[in-house]
Batch of 4 targets.
Target 1
Amino acid sequence: MKVRTRSSAIVGAICLVASLALTTASADEPAASKQAPKVALTKVTTAKNPVAGTAGPGGTVWIAERAGTVRVLDSQGGLGNPVIDITKETTTDGERGLLGIAFDKKFAHFYISFTNLQGTSTIDEFAVRKGKIQPQTRRTVLTQTQPYSNHNGGDIKIGPDGYLYIAFGDGGSGGDPHGNGQNLDTLLGKILRIDPRGAKPYAIPKDNPFAGDPKAKDEIWSYGLRNPWKFSFDAGTGDLLLADVGQSAWEEIDWSPASSDGGENYGWSQMEGTHPFRDGKEPANHVRPVYEYDRTGLGCSVTGGYVYRGKAIPDLKGQYLYSDYCDGTVRALKMENGKVTGASDLGVNGGEVVSFIEGGNRELYVLDIGGSVYRIDRA
């Protein structure tokens, strides 16, 4: 994730660097869909550099603003005063800031992911009572030192299994100089899976793929990632989809079925998508992306979204939505059993798209780091 400099405030935003093109560069070159579902972007509010969001209690949508505030979008479209304010605890230099938020399944606990003033990635937990944050219950769950101010990752999600999943980039700079992507003795360049309620500060799920392995970190779920900026679980199937920002040539979208036991190696930094990076050799256990695109178009940094499971746009059901920070076009992939069977341009542009949100009713929102919050509606 590199930081672009298109407009200063936005540029401090988070740039995920990679590449985007209007052409499909998937291993099997799925044909573009003949007719894409007709959608529109409805602007519902304006936030200050919105960077992440999640469905909240009572049909609300909670939005994280990069400088360190969390605000609630109610069903009438109003954006309230901050319910969390850590602006004095984080910075927005490089790709840092408040980067992810998530509720547990019962809305009893709320998690934030941010980089502190020293640049250390930090996951904190708050208890929630009657839909309100209890500040006095705040505790730190997990920290990870970051060697550079880019490729911090920072997205967090509660999986279908109730565990907390955490995305960390390879630590930054360029080309993974410390080899973190393929190194199982670091949390960098990984998706982690922990049980924050099983112990203090957290417990390791017994079925984690490397639990008990003296040569690997117990927390690791999957590895070989450069900067998995945004990932999500399909609300219909439980499958995991993640968008990994590329280095210089290829953006990729990876898929893992709900039945996975974890341990997937997505190849970085030996591979960038399906292509050897520099003099890299493809690992024997490399899990290739289900989709990739190159930089021949306007894109530079893939922004992962969600599989659409809402009701407002029936023709879009089951398709995976994503965009690109530099291109801004919202696109969709049709998938069957982990194979992309069609790709389409939905004909709408969300600006500098940095994130998607799935509301409690499964309808989707698009976040423009410049401030606009859009809902994806039927045209």
Target 2
Amino acid sequence: MRRISRITVAGAATASLALALAACGGTSTSSSSSESKGDKGLAIAYDVGGKGDQSFNDAAYAGLEQAKKEYKYETADIEPTDGETDADKQQRLESLAKQGYNPIVGVGYAYAAAVKGAAEKFPDVTFGIVDDSTIEAENVADLVFSEEQGSYLAGVAAAKSTKSNVVGFIGGVDNPLIHKFQAGFEQGVKDTNPKAKVLSQYLTQTAEEGGFSSPDKGKTAAEGQIENKADVVYAAAGLSGQGVIEAAAANKVWAIGVDSDQYQQEALAKYKDSILTSAMKDVAKAVYNLAKSVEDGKPETGIVRGDLKTGEVSLSDSNPKFADDTELQEAISTAKDKIISGDIKVKSS
């Protein structure tokens, strides 16, 4: 059952608030019969790259769509704007809260300060933040993942698939979150094939420089690694990863996708035969589960972690060449079991 405070807050939504929301970034909404009750549901605010990144943000949108379909309520999803500040992000979240949306999810660690501030002002609204575990509040769920575990399996796949004994890792932004992807991948490669060399690099030092939103940067980096004999390239770089996949396809080497099953992404269809697998984290499930917890009257709070054991971290098997490789699948299955049992402890930095 949804909370009374949500209904009264929703009644405060006005045209002026809608205008304020639009000023903070592009938005799309979808309404249903529940709107007549003044009862709005899940809203998400996208990270850098926005909807259409075929990766992280699109996974969050899939969770929103699932909740909308099941609960028949109004939802909102809002794009970021260039050069925005923490204050801009907080204003965006507060505008959503004033309009009656609940829960509200900031997609990405960049929303940490904004979620903390908005949650303090709206204690009756449940907030979620993806990829940040620093906020301690009774109405905030920190939706985090053991990315290093999925990346370890990606490393196993790369090590078993390389013919040159050179593989590559490309991170979008040089920060602790992406270090987890790098650390797990490198460990998985080395544990599987000690002779293999890993070429690792980052596109930018900050997100503002376009590390997560520049396919051209990803393509250039991948081309450089391929020139240095890398025949499997793994990118944890958001929208920039599309450029990595394009370069891999052009040079007839393997790419490993990230966050979503990129083999299945329509925008990448012409490159899919070059996408060996994707190291997925189920942002969609995390976002949906938060919405469900609010609907059930027991909102999630604190750190909510997805990993190999919960099934929210995994490797995709959509590519038949990957799925039908018995030796490769056995190696991945063995590694997965050992990670879950604790026999393999995956580094996160």
Target 3
Amino acid sequence: MLKPAQRPVRRTQQRRQALAGYALLAPSLVGVLGFLLAPVVIVIVLSLFDWKLLATPEFIGLENYRELLGDGEVWHSFLVTGYYVVICVPGTTILSLLLALLVDRKLRGMKYFRALLVIPWMATPVAMGLVWAWIFDPGQGALNQFLGLFGVDGPAWLSSELLAMPSVAAVHIWQFAGYNMLFFLAGLQNIPASLREASSLDGASPVAHFFSVTLPLLRPTMLFVLITNVIGSFQAFDTIFVMTEGGPGDSTEVATYLIYDEAFRKFDFGYAATISVLLFLVILAVTVAQFAYFERRTTYDQS
């Protein structure tokens, strides 16, 4: 127990430590407030106004939300977004997990192969969109040229309402699979080797070991990868803008592209903010559902 004379000194030390901690947190806190929370609040407030950029903003309350409820184009864009997410999230997650299993080997030159797989993620989406738009070109594109070697007449990938979305989603999967592979690789290397040895002694096959031991212990990593993939897929814009501009028709007009169209082509910033709020709520609901699903199915103790 501290003596009465020592208590003021102890309190002073605690205050100094607290101030030092707040000082270290201040740059990150300013960033969160300035670039995350403040924009959300601004968008919510802006959704209550009718603002055509050059005109004076006019407060209209919930009128934008009433218009949104009956706007078929908005709901169609969310269906398209859901379609994009359903393709990208499982595709990226499964491919990145398979790649992690592939590179989780102590072979010569494996670290260079790992780095090679991450390179697509390091490139900008706009640059990748331009390259892939050329690859998918029906006339001179590399993909149809390759198919032509086997006598196959390749389709117009980005001009087909049926193929445009899967083509764009394939680019997303290709670009982010290597990045997500790193998280699965870290999770695999964090699993104790003793568990693998025990499973082998019990006579479990590699497939049985994967589903009974490896996959359950990867659930924390799986949760992180799924959440970041879902959020990233819902917010996809750059690649779609470069490759299809929401077309053909409106087959690739995701919610983010519609927000861009409303804000920077129609200059209706209030209505664009309303769609942004709806997108934010959808992402929040899906994220909360993911946490709720994994909460009782995830173990963090691998000892």
Target 4
Amino acid sequence: MDEPRGTEALVSTAVRDLPTGSFAFVMATGIVSTAFSIVGWAVPSLILLIIAVGALVILAIISVWRFAAYRAEVLLDARNPARAFGFFTMVAAINVVGIRMYSPQAPTATVVLAVLSVPLWLLFTYGLPGNLMLRPLAGPVATKVDGSWFLWVVGTQSVATAAAIIGAGVRSHALAAVAVALWGIGVLLYLMLATLVTLRLLTVPSKPNSFTPSYWIYMGATAITVLAGSRILLLPQDLPIMAATAGVVSGLTYILWAFGAWWVPLLVLFGLWRHVIHREPARYEAGLWSIVFPLGMYSVASMHFGTVARLPLLVGIGEAGTWIAGIAWLVVAAAMVYAGCARLLGRGGRAANDRAARG
């Protein structure tokens, strides 16, 4: 009877301690699948899509279970500045999978997933910042801001991208206007958060464990903004909203693409400073998917925007980046499997020792 109880305890602990950013795995897998699809690798793309859909369903079930059984822990996460914005990975994951599944002949899956993401986006975009702003004072929130806050931008731009794709298919004036509005909100959120995060980096003493992989979302947020912008530029040009904003969207999209590229060497430098100079051990953590996702998203965004803007250099960069993102996915997936097996074997060994001691 000890074994079932041990297994049940392991599952309950995993559900209770589920990271708020766990859907980053779906985001990373879905966007790498999209990148492979664009460059013509149909089989790896399909395999990754199946993995992404399966993981999305499983994580959605676990998240509902966690909210029902461990609501206090969920609310604590929502009040924690270092964890709260991880909830936006739910919104982004839903739309990344929906965007990958889009077909002009069969857009139903994309539409359904986009509709499901909107209530979550509304809840998180107002509930999480509002909760942090109105909570009882326990020290300044600004000192705890980190790269995970850019998930607010990522979630917003994922909805903008889905709206633009669906709007282009049905020539909807309303969806086109919503897509441009959300894209603009995402751009302003990015500028606001980039200011906060950069000020923290410049004013708060740096520690090796503070430079987590979440800072790669700094670049990932620009990448998905570029993707959203390129999708908006594919909207019918005779729509009134396009006549009013196409030039602005095109110019800012290119600037943000360049800014995202500028960030890559600095982010690599952060990692070298942490792991090489300060010898912080490199081990698997869920946040590593926050590196894979920006790499995949930047590749997809570069190929889309390069095609729309007729900039072959960007297309070439995106194609090369696809292989880097694919290798990164394989490395992090292998590390995740290894860490999971080691954890299970470690728990199993401890359980066996405990039974032997009792026997």
